[in-house]
Amino acid sequence: MKRREFLLKSALMGAAATLPVHKLFAAGQESPFTTLRRNVGTFVGRGGTIGWLVNENAVVVIDSQFTESAQACISGLEEMTDLAFDLLINTHHHGDHTEGNPAFKGKVKRILAHQNVPDLQKASAESRGQEALDAQVYADTTYEKTWKEDVGDETVHVTHYGPAHTGGDSVIYFEKANVAHMGDLMFNRAHPFIDRGSGASISNWITTLNSTAKDLPSDAMYIFGHGNSDYGITGSNVDLELMRDFFTALLDYTQKGIAAGKSKEEIMKIETLDGFEEFKAPGWRLPLSANIEVAYAELTEDNG
Ligand SMILES: [Zn+2]
Fold first, then answer.
1. Using CA atoms, how far apart are residues 85 and 46, in angstroms rounded to an integer?
2. Most buried by CB count within 10 Å: which residue of 82, 229, 260, 295?
3. What is the Å distance from ligand 1's center to 184 Cα?
4. Rounded distance from Cα 225 to ligand 1 centre (Å)
5. All domains of the chain, ordered by start, with CATH?
6. pTM listed for this prediction
């Protein structure tokens, strides 16, 4: 067996056994790489979960975290394969999913994202100053509603269901592996970040989660951008439905407060929603009050 094949096969069977422990990850720590199904897996470093596909003919990476962890991810992937990387997909524009893009420059043939992502990324960088603006590497390939391509013996589908976490979210689905990357459309059992300033919509986020669960097979496996440390960053459609129910409860609770004549500040004075206590995740910094504030804005400022 050739070295490359050996490394690829070994890596696919259990990444921890063959991957070098990069200096970013101290000896004794678990490997940041996990294989899920077929030749699709996750990389956990700093920021939103990276997804990857490494097969005999193609390499696809989903999201890039930050420069340092992106480099660690690239090093690990280069141990699995000698192939050039075909595609980096950004699930959305947030920095913890795109700031590692420069590390992929020259290593990946194309960067794909929803058509709204470059502008959102640019606006966000602009608000942080010239240095941030100069550091951006943007998607060079964009799509409007759906995008599909064969990558080696796998087919990748990319779908935009409208505004949800931001105005430019994608669901990436590897058809044969039957694994989908949700980006930040999923905060697994944790109060989510809802970026209203970048076009987020709670009501359409509910629709997005419903549509995804309906469009994909019931036994699809899902990768989540972020997750409660007790529950992790992968799961099933049951987790999507729970997050959908959380948003429904969030809008319902906020609407009832408004109808009862309460002030926004009064409505914001709770730490958990009934039935969703575990969303106050250990070590998680985003509070429910921030979610209620966005729900209040969406319910009072949107008229159509
Ligand atoms: Zn995000």
1. 21
2. 295
3. 5
4. 8
5. 3-238 (3.60.15.10)
6. 0.90
